[in-house]
Design goal:
seven-stranded parallel sheet, alpha/beta, 10 helices, single chain, 45% helix
Length: 302
């Protein structure tokens, strides 16, 4: 027996009147966010969170960059931002950052561990000190910052949003024809694994845990890191790096990634747990270079 189509439609449309306006979805007024990092992607994440009304506490090792970031953000009209010098590779530092956020604005609602470091090195040249520095900042630092923030969320009993930051390096993407990113690959794969594990545990507390994996970006950190590698491997390495990278999509502004991260901090992610969203300009795709159509105006064979 076929069901009445008008009745089915009424069932489908019944909830429309209860929908929250999308403008309200992106209103983070009253939310307290903690971000690690102060330049590059982190600065754009902080800016966008503040634009949405969140109170943002952020931390990084470089006091000068933190002070400049606060000055810049307040100059843009965002008064509810605060910086604390933080070495994200140290557990006590990330715990202190969360405590500072609680003292400044109240329990944490959002955490985005952006801070990262990397240096291109041949696998055969990587020493323990370099390996530890990259993994401690890029994976361990994220783990314990999320843990500290999640404890604040659980104590407050109001749920929350965790958006970890991996990289397409987690699946082996790195510099074309060079590679040389094994500690970074290791750390970012660890971020993906921990995101899934944490998501399974924190769902019961109303906390959504997901991950954004950026591709290439133009940032101060990337420029600085490549400079150090050129000093070790010479101009031939730089030439190969530039040649290999010419076909790789690179975001000219970290805001391309920041917008997705901030979206995941809203209730857009309410039904998402342990997911990895790649924002890489389609780096893994082989895009068609010419319009081969013979039926459309403008096609090569029309």
């Amino acid at each position: 027996m076929e069901m009445d189509k008008e009745m089915l439609f009424d069932m489908a449309a019944d909830g429309l009147d209860d929908l929250e306006p999308l403008a309200q979805t992106f209103d983070l007024s009253g939310k307290v966010a903690v971000v690690s990092g102060s330049v590059g992607l982190a600065l754009y994440v902080i800016d966008r969170l503040a634009e949405c009304g969140a109170k943002v506490v952020f931390g990084s090792r470089t006091q000068q960059w933190g002070d400049l970031a606060v000055e810049t953000l307040k100059g843009r009209g965002y008064e509810n931002v605060a910086f604390k010098a933080t070495d994200t590779s140290k557990v006590e530092d990330v715990q202190a950052l969360v405590a500072f956020a609680e003292e400044s604005f109240g329990p944490v609602d959002i955490v985005v561990p952006v801070a990262a470091t990397w240096e291109a090195r041949a696998f055969l040249d990587v020493d323990e000190k370099l390996y530890d520095r990259i993994v401690d900042v890029d994976q361990k630092g994220q783990y314990f910052l999320v843990q500290a923030a999640a404890r604040s969320m659980v104590k407050a009993g109001h749920g929350g949003k965790v958006v970890t930051v991996a990289s397409v390096a987690y699946r082996g993407e790195d510099m074309a024809n060079l590679a040389m990113m094994t500690p970074y690959n290791t750390a970012k794969a660890g971020v993906v694994g921990m995101t899934i594990g944490i998501a399974k545990e924190l769902k019961q507390y109303g906390i959504n845990v997901n991950c954004v994996a950026p591709g290439g970006m133009v940032t101060a950190g990337a420029i600085q890191n490549c400079t150090r590698t050129v000093e070790l491997y010479g101009q031939e390495w730089q030439a190969d790096q530039m040649a290999g990278g010419s076909s790789t999509p690179v975001a000219s502004s970290p805001d391309d990634i920041a917008r997705m991260i901030v979206t995941m901090c809203t209730n857009v992610s309410d039904f998402m747990y342990g997911k990895v969203i790649e924002v890489d300009g389609g780096a893994g795709l082989s895009f068609q270079a010419k319009p081969w159509s013979y039926t459309m105006e403008g096609g090569l064979h029309a």
